[in-house]
Amino acid sequence: MTVNADSSNSFDSWRDLPAAQQPEYPDAAELSAVTEELAAYPPLVFAGECDQLGDRIAQVAQGRAFLLQGGDCAEAFDQVGADQIRAKLKTLLQMSAVLTYAAAVPVVKVGRIAGQYSKPRSKPTETRDGVTLPSYRGDSVNGPEFTEEARVPDPRRLLRMYHSSVATLNLVRGFTTGGYADLHQVHSWNQDFVRSSAAGQRYEALAREIDNALNFMRACGAQPAEFESVEFYASHEALLLDYEAALTRTDSRSGRLYDVSGHMVWIGERTRQLDGAHIEFASRIRNPIGVKLGPTTTPEEALALIDRLDPDRIPGRLTFITRMGADRIRDLLPTLVEKVTASGATVAWVCDPMHGNTFEAASGHKTRRFDDVLDEVKGFFEVHKSLGTHPGGIHVELTGDDVTECVGGGDEIFVDDLHQRYETACDPRLNRSQSLDLAFLVAEMYRS
Ligand code: PEP
Ligand code: CO
């Protein structure tokens, strides 16, 4: 890889277009100094890894694999610790083991991790007790504290975003290739969990079956290397274009541009305007791209997005992440899927059952009902089944900690519990037990 230091090349076409949801930095010179520094830093990921993920997602798009994408709504700088990262990874590995074993499908594992620091906001300001301040836009932009000082966008936070992402990805790579993710460890991921939770006990039974299967294979003389480490990819929303562009490099082998801040990036519901800077930026990079599609998406928009982002119709290039809401998915998804399928494009269809199902509880906490999350996934499976298309995966907000942010689940969280461990920097996440519950239920849907 070589550094793309030439700021006059055509890649900069996005700079002439309107970019939604960008911070207004008070000091443009400071931003330039930061992006120059970022542009000189090493890549977080390599072009070859991005291509490999593209191949894996192609399998999803063609109906032969399932995508599990999950992690925090917003990562936070003060949560970059070994315990928190391990807990998230463990949850994703456990979910993946459940899906792989119970649904007998290869699972492509992608974290919302190592770069998920920037948040689009519905409102530019927030008012508390008559005081109005700029909204918190993620740790990469400003601070969550409700003070004037904290809410001023600070470009130096982009450097901290980079270093936090590096530290996180380094640990993730260590865990996933250094023996921790060895399938023979299926029990150890559950150790601190099994006694306290119904989901943990159900998982333990499944882990015993996996153990038996591994023992059987070993007795037969088979010891596949695939069992000893795991392929795990990093993804985040490509929201702050100054950051993403500073980390976009020309691959010296292919001469193509890659955003080396993460393997896969997605464009959010609020920034997917066809004539906007985000779609233009995404059209120039070769990473696998996701686009969130909310309830207002028309089939024409979906088809135009395909033309812009996947003109060569390469399976694995484009993932549509639908987030319609449990009460609307059955009405809105069929036409989109039908029209896209009829166009001949092969996209991966993934269900985000979180962002269409958020509401405010009487206590003032932003929350989601586990049953709504589940119902949206169910609707997603029903629609794809009826159309003969592939329900390609789920995109969820979760954490490995036992937080109380979403209500419901097997170890039920009640509205009155929400205050106990409500720790999210942005949207409410499934806790570990709710995440495992979801994995078991999705595996059942997949099989049936
Ligand atoms: C998110 O994924 O955290 C998010 C903001 O999603 P969306 O763009 O779908 O609203
Ligand atoms: Co969110």
What is the fourth-level CATH superfamily?
Answer: Aldolase class I
Mean of residue pLDDT values: 95
Write down the Rg. Answer: 21 Å
**Structural class designation:** alpha/beta
Number of strands: 14
Unreliable stretches, pLDDT < 50, 5 or more residues? 1-8
| Named CATH architecture | Alpha-Beta Barrel
What is the top-level CATH class? Alpha Beta
List the total number of helices.
11
- Basic shape: globular
Termini Cα gap: 45 Å
N-to-C order of helices and strands: HHEHEEEHHEHEEEHEHEHEEEHEH
User: Major beta sheet, specifics?
Assistant: 8 strands, parallel, barrel
What is the beta-strand fraction? 5-15%
Helix content: 25-40%
Strand order of the largest sheet: 1-2-5-8-9-10-11-14
The CATH topology turns out to be TIM Barrel
**Domain count:** 1
Spell out which ligands are present.
phosphoenolpyruvate, cobalt (II) ion
Region (Disordered): 117-150
Cofactor: Mn(2+); Co(2+); Cd(2+)
Family: Belongs to the class-II DAHP synthase family.
Binding site for Mn(2+): 73, 355, 397, 427
Task: Summarize the structure in short.
The protein has helices at residues 28-40, 47-61, 82-103, 156-177, 198-219, 241-246, 277-284, 299-309, 329-342, 370-387, 432-447; strands spanning 66-71, 107-112, 125-128, 131-134, 232-237, 248-250, 257-259, 264-267, 289-293, 318-322, 348-351, 358-360, 366-368, 393-397. By secondary structure, it is α/β, with parallel strands linked by helices.
Strand and helix layout:
Elements: H1 28-40, H2 47-61, E1 66-71, H3 82-103, E2 107-112, E3 125-128, E4 131-134, H4 156-177, H5 198-219, E5 232-237, H6 241-246, E6 248-250, E7 257-259, E8 264-267, H7 277-284, E9 289-293, H8 299-309, E10 318-322, H9 329-342, E11 348-351, E12 358-360, E13 366-368, H10 370-387, E14 393-397, H11 432-447
This protein binds phosphoenolpyruvate and cobalt (II) ion.
Residues 73, 355, 397, 426-427 line the site of cobalt (II) ion.
Protein name: Phospho-2-dehydro-3-deoxyheptonate aldolase
Binding site for phosphoenolpyruvate: 112, 269-270, 292, 323
GO molecular function, one term: 3-deoxy-7-phosphoheptulonate synthase activity
